[in-house]
Amino acid sequence: MLQDAKDFARERGLDRILVTCNAENFGSASVIERNGGVLENVALDPATNSSLRRYWIEL
């Protein structure tokens, strides 16, 4: 699914995308990292009061 999202973004001329996951969701973090995700930071999501891992993926 992430690969499809990368292809979709690339087709629309984007050169990078921001992908987030819950900080405790190590499975999602692993998928993002295997797809080229580089961790920018861990930030608090005020809507849910939980921590999010923020990754940039260069296309």
TrEMBL record:
Keywords: Transferase. InterPro entries: Acyl_CoA_acyltransferase (IPR016181). GO terms for molecular function: transferase activity. Signal peptide: none annotated. Gene3D superfamilies: 3.40.630.30. The keyword Phosphoprotein does not apply. This is Acetyltransferase, GNAT family. It comes from Rhodopirellula europaea 6C.
